[in-house]
Every structure is written in C-alpha cells, then in structure tokens.
Amino acid sequence: MLRVTKIFRFETAHAIFGYCGSCKNIHGHSYVLHVTVQQANPNEGFLDGTGFVMDFKDLKRIVKAQVVDKMDHCIILSEAYLAQNPHLGSLENLDIWPIEPTAENILLKVKSAIEGAMPPEVKLCRLKLYETADSYAEWEA
C-alpha cells in the first residue's frame, strides 16, 4: 500500500473540565500533526497521470485551511468548562466545544475536517497528533 505523509505544526491551548490533574488548568501545547493519505482505489502498479498519490502542495492547502488556520493560537474550552468559568467567555480566539478538548477529541475533529475536504481519488488513512514530544493520539482507517 503506497501512502504519503505531511507534517504540520500549530500552537493551541486547552483545559480539561472535571480532570483531577494539572490539565484542568488552561495550558498550551506545540502540536505536531502527521497526516497520511493513500489512493482511494489503489493498484499494485506504478501511479498513472502525474505519478502522485496526492501533491504535497494540495495536502498542505487542505490541512492548513481546515485545521492549522483554525486551531493555531486559539484556546479550546468545553461548554462545561466555560459554564464554570464564565469570565473566560470574552477571550480572543476562543473556540467552544460541546466535548472536552483532549488530544483524542482534537484528533477526531481534525479527522472530520480533513475528510470532508479530500478529493474523491484520495483517502485519509492515518492521523497522528503529538501533544508532547513523546505522547500522541493516533487514528487509522
């Protein structure tokens, strides 16, 4: 199976409501996102046409528009967190979610955003979101 991966970086802050550890407080991460795609209908031979599974420029354009531009330098808080901390509602670049913004849920939001923007001949097959240098959430089709 032939796949290509592009890596993206963005800075985002979040807090986890109801968590007993330090992640209950607003804090930030330097996220690293690996996006892997493959042909929707793969074959075992050489690639036709341009010879690309997907042009890296096109993948960059999609992920930048759907993820990086929206999440970079924003604060993601859940509705529950904001209900307990209403004074935070006036923060700039605040993104309010109905769910807790854990690495796992952020990754699922990323998946949904990217899948909807992919051309039909390309399939999103793997995502890996590093929250720290040695901790990540991973999704695979």
Note down, in words, how this protein is organized.
The protein is built from three helices and six strands, in the order ββαβαβαββ. 25% of the residues lie in helices and 36% in strands. It has a single domain (3-140), classed as Tetrahydropterin Synthase, Chain A (2-Layer Sandwich), CATH 3.30.479.10. By secondary structure, the chain is of the alpha/beta class. It is elongated, with a radius of gyration of 17 Å. It has helices at residues 56-71, 79-84, 103-115; strands at residues 3-14, 27-39, 74-78, 94-97, 122-132, 135-140. It has a six-stranded mixed beta sheet.
Note the topology.
Layout: E1 3-14, E2 27-39, H1 56-71, E3 74-78, H2 79-84, E4 94-97, H3 103-115, E5 122-132, E6 135-140
Parallel strand pairs: 1-3, 3-4
Antiparallel strand pairs: 1-2, 2-5, 5-6
